[in-house]
Amino acid sequence: MITSMLLLLCSMSIFSQEKDSIIYIFPDKVEMKLYERIQKYTSFNDLDFDFYLTRLEKDTFRLSLSQHNKTGSGDWVYDTNRFILINDKKYPLLLDYDSMFGTSKPNEAGAFGNRDDGFVLRTQFIYEGYSIKFTKTGRYVSESLGIYRKIEK
Question: Do the beta carbons of residue 90 and residue 32 sit within 8 Å?
Fold first, then answer.
């Protein structure tokens, strides 16, 4: 009886996590290129991967891949509820709006009505490595290796 209750509670917890997350499905061409890129790192078991999505123009996006040592906590990427599905595996996904409007220290956001006075700590994401540009219809634009940082004008 206790075992069945534990199994039921565990399955409810797993379902709740799935229900609370948003899964992004990108066009097949993009997913295939990302999968090929990740496969180059399969010999490194101590690496985690995450992605950063930037809207460049009305219908053009850049998806940047980050590979890093597994840390498990303390990094924003582990707190996201958005994931990209590649083949049958989910990877964390951050959006450019996360760095524009999000804060890693919500308890230090200042007082209501006075948050713009320098109280809100913003996080800037810097991704170095592989990225792919594509349109929302799945048309491949380009791939590149480099450093990408969101800079406000």
Answer: no
> What predicted TM-score, i.e. pTM, was given to this entire model?
0.71
Separation CA 105–CA 8 (nearest Å): 35
Instruction: Please give the Cα distance from 10 to 32 (Å, whole number).
Output: 33
Q: What tokens were used for 115? A: 């948050």
**Is residue 64 classed exposed, middle or buried when 0-12, 13-18 and 19+ CB atoms within 10 A define those classes?**
buried
Query: In this predicted model, what pLDDT tens digit does every residue of 23-78 receive, in sequence order?
Result: 999 999 999 999 998 888 776 666 788 898 988 988 999 998 887 666 654 466 66
The answer to whether the CB of 80 falls within 8 A of the CB of 125 is no
Please return the burial class of 132, using the count of CB atoms within 10 Å of its CB with bins 0-12, 13-18 and 19+: buried
Query: What gap in Å lies between CA 91 and CA 108, rounded to an integer?
Result: 29
